[in-house]
Each structure stands twice: as C-alpha cells, then as structure tokens.
Design the sequence.
C-alpha cells in the first residue's frame, strides 16, 4: 500500500493507486473530464490520488465546475438502471428485520427531539407550499393507488389488518370482506370465509 505525507499527516493510497500530486496538463485534463462526466470533487480527488483541497484549488484556478452531491444524485437517479439498482438494494435491506428495527428506533429517537420535529415540520410545510412538489406527490399517490398490491396494503392497514396480503383469487368486490375477517380472526379464516361466499354465489347463480 502506497503512503505519502502532507502537512505531517499520512494519506493512505488504495493498493495499486498511482500517486499523482503534480499539477500536470494530463492531470488537469483528467480533472476536467471527470467534472464534465458528472463526478463530484471528492470522487475526482480519489480518482487522481490527491486530497480534496488540492482538487478544489486546481478546479478553481482552471475554472472547472463540479456538480454538488445533490446535483450528482439527481443526474444518477435520472438513469433507469441506477434507479433499479438502488430500488433493489433498498428492498433487500428493508427485508431484513434487524435493518427495519434499527431504522424504526432511529426514527423514534429523532422524532422524540423537539428541535428535530420542528425542523422536519418546517421543511414539510415549505415543500408542500410548492405547487410543483404537491403535483409530484399527487402523481406518485395516483400511480401507487393504481397498483393492486399497493392498494391492498393500504386498505389492509386502514382496516386494522396491516401486513395482510389479499390473495389474487379473491374478487375485488370482496377485498374489504377478506380484510375485515383477517383483522378479526386470521388469514386462514378470511380465505375460508371468501371461499364459502363464492360457493354460495355460484350456487345462487346456478
């Protein structure tokens, strides 16, 4: 592993990384290319093997503009492949009970702090005051509601049967009946009840 010293501090280089501390035309060209490609200044610094302040100084003197982390994230999220990978990673993490428990504990701890609550409330009010934000939220809700699985989860939560998934064979007009029975008893009882209703309906129609 390469090592170099700057101002008395050791900067550890990744194995096999070149130590490029000189301000050469080649390094400046690479810095410009990285910025144009959407890399943040910290990413460019790692790629060149220099500290961030050096990358910032080079960029300032050469009038090279780097995107902020927020801008880089927005650009990345515009790529369907990136969004798909992030969604898959998020779903995998949330499928872990320990991860969900940690997130829940952190959220409760933060919400218990009056200052945090006040900041979140202010940020929420500010966002909701923007017509564009409200329009995006409305579109997202409509899109989610159009998904039968999402709609079933929302209905289940509202009817006290949170976490209950409605089987695909249950007709849409019997969803509420299924959820009510599942909330009062369990999913097996709900399935049995719906099958009984369907049999009765079939017999009445014969």
Sequence:
């Amino acid at each position: 592993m390469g090592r170099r010293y700057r101002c008395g501090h050791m900067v550890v280089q990744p194995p096999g990384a070149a130590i490029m501390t000189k301000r050469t035309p080649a390094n400046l060209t690479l810095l410009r290319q990285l910025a144009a490609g959407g890399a943040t200044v910290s990413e460019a610094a790692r790629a060149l093997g220099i500290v961030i302040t050096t990358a910032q100084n080079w960029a300032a003197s050469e009038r090279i503009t780097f995107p902020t982390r927020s801008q880089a994230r927005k650009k990345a999220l515009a790529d369907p492949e990136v969004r798909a990978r992030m969604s898959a990673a998020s779903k995998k993490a949330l499928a872990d009970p320990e991860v969900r428990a940690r997130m829940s504990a952190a959220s409760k701890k933060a919400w218990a702090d009056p200052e945090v609550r006040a900041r979140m409330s202010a940020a929420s009010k500010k966002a909701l005051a923007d017509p564009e934000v409200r329009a995006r939220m409305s579109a997202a809700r409509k899109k989610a509601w159009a998904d039968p699985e999402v709609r079933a989860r929302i209905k289940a939560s509202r009817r006290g049967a949170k976490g209950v998934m409605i089987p695909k064979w249950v007709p849409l007009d019997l969803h509420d009946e299924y959820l009510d029975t599942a909330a009062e008893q369990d999913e097996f009882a709900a399935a049995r009840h719906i099958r009984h209703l369907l049999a009765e309906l079939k017999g009445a129609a014969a």
Summary: The chain has three domains: 3-73, 102-129, 148-205. The two ends are 81 Å apart (CA to CA). Strands lie at 3-6, 9-12. The chain has eleven helices and two strands.
